[in-house]
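Study this pair:
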Amino acid sequence: MNLNKENVRRIRGLILFTVLLVAACFHLEAVLGGISYCIGLISPFLLGAAIAFVINVLMRFLERCLFENSHVRKYKVAVKIKRPISLLLAVCLIIWLIVVIVLYVLPHLGEAVSSLALSIQKFIPKAYVWLNDLFNNNPEMQEALEPLLTVQLDWGTIVNNVISFLKSGIGNALGSTISVATVLVNSTVNFIVGFVFACYILLQKEKLLYQLRKLLEAFLPEKAAGQIWYVGQLTERIFSNFITGQCVEAVILGTMFVITLSIFKFPYALLIGVLIGFLALIPIFGAFIGCVVGAFLILMVEPIKALIFIAIFLVLQQIEGNLIYPRVVGSSVGLPAIWVLAAVTVGGSLMGVLGMLVFIPLVSVFYTLLKQTVNRRIEEKYKKASAAPEDGEKAEKKE
């Protein structure tokens, strides 16, 4: 090997990297503790970046609707105020949505849950009579079911036990009022810092992106900087489209169920519609979990309507899956169904519901990059294969 300055520098860097890696392996606990401490320091800014990403989806939509008109763009004032106005409207819409959920939806859900307890209490004797009539000629089955159906539920005792459990659990977990106040203050401060940081990001996102592009070009080779920039743009586009599509699709599906169940006078129409809409954010499995829960709720009140509800769910699910979802989400994620199922399964196993939501666009990014790489390499092979005979013909002509 030619030991010039460049090779010596590379060998020195490789030795330093090896020494650091070995030292990190021998002091893994300290390294993980340092990483955890650093993440704790920058957690408000990570939270702010996540808030900025979510708000940016709505803010960008408002900018297109309100300020992309040719009649509006010719006014300089409109160009200057479009970003702060869109940001303010996006924040107000999110706050309005939270207020509506807290002041309107949650009280109705509380009433539905309280009436559900009474419905279960009334349903048990009816179920006992129905099963007794069904297995009238089977004494062995009656004897097996009797201990289960003759249980008397004391709801007052159950509620008191739940309250005492929550009190003891909260007391053991938090310890004292000081720790509660500390957690609340830290969480509030982190959220405020993160929100302010998110607003700064959104108000100056073009400038920040320009500075980031210059930073990549200054410290990385041109090809590497271009690839990193392309992957970042692809990731942002897929995640934005996925979040927008899933939210719109969940709202449409939940609204369809609320309206349909209200028209046919099903019990718990609002509760079931909100539940299915919220669970529809979980791809593939979410809506079906809502169907099972909704059928159980209706079964407690009107067993016959539970079967009708399942039929209505299948019809609305087909309409949503074949007509609404392709138009709302389209091919923005660009991931085949089998890989969607794999992403949901792996993400749910690793990170729960959050993993189900994150892994689909994340796997879609890797799938898109892999598909582009495979297509490019196959195209290069075909070009080389087609160029080889031409080179042979030229050699023969020269001879």
The chain has 13 helices and no strands.
